[in-house]
Design a protein that fits this description.
mainly alpha, 5 helices, 0% strand
């Protein structure tokens, strides 16, 4: 199951890089969402290698994502500073927590 979720993360990252910010210059605020997706993908690839630090980082980034989603006031700020699919990341965090004892 973990490698399929890694492919999903890589697909979301590729889609974001190709369609969302493909024509935007790099040092821009529009790249923040794609950088979040990159961090999620790197963490999940390390989770596939059963790294405990990656599981902790994934859950912490998801908690930060949820906090930003509810603390930011405008919908524009939420769209700029957080990646889409918050519920998917929460679901994957539950998978990490279920298998946390198996991580080393």
């Amino acid at each position: 199951m973990f490698p399929l979720v890694a492919l999903f993360h890589l697909f979301m990252l590729g889609y974001s890089l190709w369609w969302d910010v493909g024509e935007v210059p790099f040092p821009s605020v529009y790249w923040i969402s794609s950088l979040w997706l990159l961090v999620y993908a790197v963490c999940w690839i390390a989770i596939c290698d059963l790294r405990k630090w990656a599981g902790i980082a994934y859950v912490l980034f998801t908690a930060l994502h949820i906090a930003l989603h509810y603390l930011l006031r405008s919908e524009t700020d939420i769209a700029l500073y957080t990646p889409p699919f918050m519920l998917v990341f929460v679901l994957f965090s539950f998978f990490v927590l279920v298998f946390f004892r198996r991580l080393r």
